[in-house]
Design brief:
One of its GO terms (biological process) is signal peptide processing. By secondary structure, the protein is mainly alpha-helical. The chain has two domains: about 90 residues, no CATH class; about 160 residues. The protein contains eight helices and no strands. The termini are far apart.
């Protein structure tokens, strides 16, 4: 029963993430006007907004103008739901569950917008910083968690990516903001692992892109998705990875 509840919550919020991903780069409100078709502007009614199922029932086309709907929409809804389920399996219904679900959804929005536009919007990272600080204080009150662990992690994330941006000019300044948010959410161990994984993932993806000549060496590549993937791996399997590493020394 709890599994289904988590999946439904992930699908519903995933549907809202699609709105954010579509509207934020266009500098539109994410709350008004109500959801509408991007092709004909017709207002979408409740039967058109059921995550995944509406897409399947409508055969991937708008009910009103029959324009094709991108597969991206159900994929994002399912991705968010699967991440919520994996987080639940790791943490149960705890404070960490809600904390990491918010981060996962935020990283989906930031990562996909960065991939599409190579821009990171301050509205998303400011939201992340505010939510992270709220959770830091809640954890400090409830669990007597050491607040400096998260503050230091934010500084490390900000500093490491900031230094790379300054020295190489190969990343955007938005990546500094993403690393700051991840540090405030994950703590020092989490951000160090996130940065390591993101750099490895970025190197592999960059190498593949160059080998297949999809881009030239002078063209920029969005690093936000790499940070997002690294952070999710750190959340879901970070402790096991660190234990394996320590055990191999």
């Amino acid at each position: 029963m709890y599994y289904m509840l988590v999946l439904i919550m992930g699908l519903v919020i995933g549907s809202f993430l699609n709105v954010c991903i579509y509207r934020i780069p266009r500098e539109e409100s994410i709350s008004y006007p109500p959801s509408h078709c991007g092709s004909c502007d017709h207002k979408l009614n409740p039967p058109d907004l059921v995550p995944v199922f509406s897409y399947v029932f409508l055969k991937g086309r708008c009910r009103y103008c029959r324009e094709k709907i991108s597969m991206r929409y159900p994929i994002i809804e399912m991705l968010n739901a699967v991440l919520y389920l994996l987080i639940y399996l790791n943490f149960g219904f705890t404070l960490e569950f809600f904390k990491y679900c918010i981060l996962a959804s935020l990283l989906i929005v930031i990562g996909i917008i960065d991939y599409n536009t190579q821009d990171v919007y301050m509205s998303t990272t400011i939201f992340g910083v505010i939510v992270a600080i709220i959770f830091i204080f809640i954890q400090m009150i409830l669990y007597k968690t050491e607040i400096m662990n998260f503050i230091l992690a934010g500084v490390v994330g900000f500093g490491v990516i900031g230094l790379i941006v300054f020295l190489t000019k190969g990343m955007g300044e938005g990546d500094i903001e993403i690393a700051l948010v991840c540090g405030l959410f994950l703590g020092i161990k989490g951000i160090l692992l996130t940065l390591f994984l993101a750099i490895v993932i970025g190197g592999i993806v960059g190498g593949i892109i160059l080998a297949l000549k999809l881009k030239s060496a002078k063209e920029s590549m969005a690093f936000g998705p790499c940070l997002a993937i690294g952070a999710m791996i750190a959340i879901l399997w970070g402790n096991k990875i660190i234990e394996l590493y320590i055990g191999s020394i």
